[in-house]
Structures are given as structure tokens and as C-alpha cells.
Amino acid sequence: MQALDVETIGVPADATPAFLGFTMSGHSLGWAVLTTTAEPPA
């Protein structure tokens, strides 16, 4: 997940992931990684 400094970055829905990442990089305030863990039932 990323926090951006703008409400929209104006990337079309059919844009490539590379173009989206490039466009987002200039507006990034921060980012986070969510990690899930699980344990087998006892």
C-alpha cells in the first residue's frame, strides 16, 4: 500500500503496471507492507 499526496494521479484504467508505478513514485508519501501469519488449528 502507498500513501499519495494527491487524490488522483490521472492514470487510465488500461495503463500498464510499470506506468502506474512510475507515476505513483513522484507522489509517494510513504508505503507499508502487510504480512499475514497463520497457525494450524490445534
UniProtKB/TrEMBL annotation:
This is Uncharacterized protein.
